Automatic annotation (TrEMBL):
<dbReference type="GO" id="GO:0043138">
    <property type="term" value="F:3'-5' DNA helicase activity"/>
</dbReference>
<keyword id="KW-0378">Hydrolase</keyword>
<protein>
    <submittedName>
        <fullName>DNA helicase-2/ATP-dependent DNA helicase PcrA</fullName>
        <ecNumber>3.6.4.12</ecNumber>
    </submittedName>
</protein>
<dbReference type="Pfam" id="PF00580">
    <property type="entry name" value="UvrD-helicase"/>
</dbReference>
<dbReference type="GO" id="GO:0005829">
    <property type="term" value="C:cytosol"/>
</dbReference>
<dbReference type="InterPro" id="IPR027417">
    <property type="entry name" value="P-loop_NTPase"/>
</dbReference>
<dbReference type="GO" id="GO:0016787">
    <property type="term" value="F:hydrolase activity"/>
</dbReference>
<keyword id="KW-0067">ATP-binding</keyword>
<dbReference type="InterPro" id="IPR048228">
    <property type="entry name" value="HelD_bacillota"/>
</dbReference>
<dbReference type="GO" id="GO:0003677">
    <property type="term" value="F:DNA binding"/>
</dbReference>
<dbReference type="GO" id="GO:0005524">
    <property type="term" value="F:ATP binding"/>
</dbReference>
<feature type="domain" description="UvrD-like helicase ATP-binding">
    <location>
        <begin position="209"/>
        <end position="617"/>
    </location>
</feature>
<dbReference type="GO" id="GO:0000725">
    <property type="term" value="P:recombinational repair"/>
</dbReference>
<keyword id="KW-0347">Helicase</keyword>
<feature type="binding site">
    <location>
        <begin position="230"/>
        <end position="237"/>
    </location>
    <ligand>
        <name>ATP</name>
    </ligand>
</feature>
<keyword id="KW-0547">Nucleotide-binding</keyword>
<dbReference type="InterPro" id="IPR014016">
    <property type="entry name" value="UvrD-like_ATP-bd"/>
</dbReference>
Length: 785
């Protein structure tokens, strides 16, 4: 082994030398290219002959400008490439590779040693790979096989052979700290070490230890939809991010980072995962939250509720007399049935029911809503719906043109002319002269009548501009009223409704109309409202996006998926989630993503399940899996730790004292990220105030942007997707977690812990913990006074 290690260290030195050499070369290239770009920019105009005297000269100028721009863009692109390569090589200096396979390809005399790292490295002759990129086809053998027959797929076909041995290396600053023959060692030593580390400010890449089932997700390449249902901590987010890196490598000639969109649950999560791709030498994909999209599209319409507002209501307002109606509304408005109902409603609008906004000008109606409706439905019924709206817009513009002519003669225009300031007058005068083709130095003057007529034209045109803009953006369609009508008249508007609505539909309608009339759009109405808008006016889709990945997908409603699908019609979709962590009320009964199969059809859909959990120690996983039905299938990774502890306390004073003491203790043990997790924002705010004695304690709210290390108080639904060295569940009592409906939220809170989990309960312990206690997965402390 020593001899082997020595040989490997020597090889590593050799690789490091070549790396240093290549870095030197690329540095020179990058500096030269940079200078070229800078010089080019500086002298750009010197090489362009700008001549606009006649058409030929102008054409020549345009061609020469375009050529210059192309050369500049090429130089910039070369410089970008070199900088990217330089960054990869520098990263490799720290750790050139992490794995090796000895693979004997069928038909070849001996096994080849294939070293695998975050990027590839050729020997100076350019003939051999010293290191293969982890995304290269051959590297998949490293992740997918144990010694024995193995194969991998290349664009030219499948390569078969035998994997003789497989190695993992721990290299730091050019030194091999250890190497493991993973064909011999039991358990995954490197993974043990990686998982034993502290939680970081940012998520880390997992390329050195990707597991076989995760690799299937990363390299998946068939069909339009990949669904990943995975246990808490099973690496769904990690797999999603490495998948993006893989796609950017495999399709480097066709797909760029800005053609990939990751839907994240909240702003803090966005910063938490933002380092993984740069760490892998790739640019970050676009990251959005669904809420950001809604805010952007719905701004200026209603007072729009966000998902946290809805969740807080669900968690804290059960005494509200309208609670049950709202819960029924939340569930129904999330469903595919409601999606179909909206589609049917939209179809019904072909025959009648459209609502319009009268065009008013200076207090008078130019075209009334009724006239528009008559015109809209008076046309040939075979005329396509969307065509009819455009056609109506054209008609309205004509009506405005007519009105414009009449307006010019009205007294208000004369008054406006008289009130023009000198500057406005001069400006208008100059413009009119120009329009009439009078040169600046010409003596010729504009006739008085002509001038007045022109001024009147200008004034009326300017005043009518907002109206014209409103027409071009189709604002004459009264979308708010059309949406409202769905609820107000729904019981009369069509047979398509029958049998499709829940029992509480009449109450739902009443509640929705009330909210809309008060100017409020509840979160459950946001996507349906937008959907109806898009179905009426035409979808504002984005065809340049090639891949959409949706993390924490259990929190999206089937209706939202339908919507996202239409938003990105050219994209493939990867959906990752865990129904045991579904915290939003609409998913209360959902257990899997089967409902999504019909999005693209079964032949375009593949589902992968991840059962192994990596985040937490074995005792923590044994505890958390006992909190959910069917949790037995979740496999903990063999990592030791203490059993979670449940401490019952007599009152809140003792609770806060115990938490404060525990935080001090955990800090002294070296835990860097400690979360006190509460049920809701309301509970978090109370705890934060009571625990203010804890040094540098931070409160996380839904407007928090950055995930910070240290001690935080956080509501469970915001902790989704992230992890902490130690988690303290603020109050796991019956009073807080009384209902079965809170099980998923409670599970989400507990599964955030990597190394240490402590639960408190003020008074009687929640029934959600019954099984964990009876099966002995939690150590129950004496009651603290
Ligand atoms: N193959 C792996 N190698 C090293 N670490 C891994 C691996 N897979 C997962 N992990 C680690 O496990 C933790 C959980 O991973 P991740 O957050 O991706 O899981 P998740 O399934 O998205 O979890 P959740 O659903 O609970 O949000 C992270 O710290 C991640 O780095």
């Amino acid at each position: 082994m020593d001899k082997e290690l020595r040989q490997e260290q020597e090889r590593l030195f050799h690789v490091m030398d070549i790396l240093a050499e290549q870095i030197g070369m690329v540095e020179e290239d990058a500096a030269r290219q940079r200078k070229e770009v800078v010089d080019f920019r500086k002298y750009f105009w010197e090489d362009v002959t700008v001549n606009q005297d006649n058409f030929d000269d102008l054409l020549e100028t345009i061609i020469s400008l375009r050529q210059q721009a192309e050369v500049l863009s090429l130089s910039q692109s070369s410089h970008r490439q070199s900088s990217k390569r330089l960054a990869s090589l520098r990263r490799m200096q720290e750790n050139p590779y992490f794995g090796r396979i000895d693979f004997a390809e069928d038909g070849l005399p001996k096994a080849e040693r294939i070293y695998i790292g975050v990027s590839s490295l050729m020997d100076p002759s350019g003939d051999d790979f010293l290191v293969y990129d982890w995304r290269a086809p051959v590297s998949s053998v490293y992740y997918d096989f144990t010694p024995g027959p193995a194969e991998y797929t290349t664009p030219g076909g499948t390569i078969r052979g035998e994997l003789k041995r497989k190695w993992q290396y721990l290299i730091r600053r050019g030194q091999i700290e250890s190497m493991f023959d993973t064909s011999l060692t039991i358990g995954d030593e490197v993974l043990q070490q990686v998982l034993g580390q502290s939680a970081d400010k940012h998520m880390r890449s997992i390329v050195a230890t990707i597991q076989q089932e995760q690799n299937r997700i990363i390299r998946h390449d068939d069909g339009r939809l990949l669904i990943v249902q995975g246990a808490a901590g099973s690496g769904k987010t990690s797999a999603a991010l490495q998948r993006i890196a893989y796609l950017l490598y495999k399709y480097r000639d066709r797909i760029t980072a800005d053609q990939i969109v990751l839907f994240s649950p909240n702003a803090m999560f966005k910063t938490y995962v933002s380092n993984v791709l740069p760490e892998l030498g790739e640019e970050n994909m676009q990251q959005v939250t669904f809420q950001e999209y809604l805010d952007h599209r719905l701004s200026g319409t209603y007072e729009v509720e966000d998902p946290y507002g809805q969740l807080e209501y669900v968690l804290t307002a059960s005494d509200d007399p309208e609670y049950q109606t709202r819960m029924a509304a939340i569930r129904f408005k999330a469903s595919v049935s409601f999606f179909e109902l909206i589609q049917a409603y939209r179809s019904s609008l072909e025959k009648g029911g459209m609502r319009f906004q009268s065009l008013r000008f200076r207090g008078e109606t130019l075209v009334s809503a009724e006239e528009m409706e008559k015109k809209f439905y008076g046309e040939d019924a075979s005329f396509r719906f969307s065509g009819r709206i455009e056609w109506l817009a054209t008609w309205l513009n004509e009506r405005i043109n007519e009105a414009e002519k009449l307006e010019r003669r009205k007294p208000w225009v004369q008054e406006a002319i008289e009130l023009l300031s000198n500057e406005q007058y001069e400006l208008a005068y100059a413009r009119i002269r120009k329009k009439l083709g009078l040169k600046e130095d010409s003596e010729e003057d504009v006739e008085g009548d002509h001038l007045t007529a022109e001024l009147a034209r200008m004034i009326v045109r300017k005043k009518l501009k907002p109206l014209r803009e409103g027409i071009s953006t189709l604002q004459f369609v009264n979308l708010n009223d059309i949406y409202r009508r769905l609820y107000e008249d729904s019981l009369h508007i069509g047979p398509w409704l029958e049998g499709k609505v829940p029992d509480a539909w009449a109450d739902i309608c009443q509640l929705t109309v009330k909210n809309l009339d008060e100017g409020r759009l509840s979160y459950e109405d946001t996507t349906p409202f937008l959907l109806l808008n898009e179905l009426i006016l035409g979808f504002q889709s984005n065809v340049s996006i090639r891949h959409v990945l949706i993390d924490e997908a259990q929190d999206y409603s089937p209706l939202q998926f339908e919507f996202i699908k239409r938003l990105f019609p050219a994209a493939k979709m990867t959906v990752l989630g865990d129904f045991h962590q579904a915290v939003f009320a609409h998913a209360a009964e959902a257990v899997d993503f089967d409902v999504l199969t019909h999005l693209y059809g079964a032949d375009q859909t593949e589902a992968i399940t991840l059962q192994r959990s990596y985040r937490s120690t074995k005792p923590i996983v044994e505890f958390t899996r006992s909190l959910i039905p069917g949790g037995e299938v979740i496999e903990p990774f063999e990592r030791n730790g203490n059993k979670p502890v449940l401490t019952a306390v007599t009152d809140h004073e003792v609770l806060h004292r115990s938490i404060s003491d525990q935080v001090v203790e955990l800090k002294s043990q070296g835990y860097a990220t400690i979360a006190i997790i509460c049920k809701s924002a309301t509970e978090s705010a109370v705890a934060f105030k009571a625990l203010s004695g804890i040094d540098e304690l931070k409160l996380v709210t839904h407007s928090s942007i950055e995930y910070k290390q240290g001690v935080v108080v956080i509501p469970a639904y915001l902790a989704k997707g992230i992890e902490f060295d130690a988690v303290l569940v603020n109050d796991a009592s019956t009073r807080v977690y009384e209902y079965e409906s809170l099980r998923r939220l409670f599970y989400t809170a507990c599964t955030r812990a990597m190394h240490h989990l402590q639960l408190y309960s003020v008074g009687t312990v929640s029934p959600l913990l019954e099984r964990a206690i009876s099966e002995g997965h939690v150590q129950v402390d004496e009651i603290c006074h």
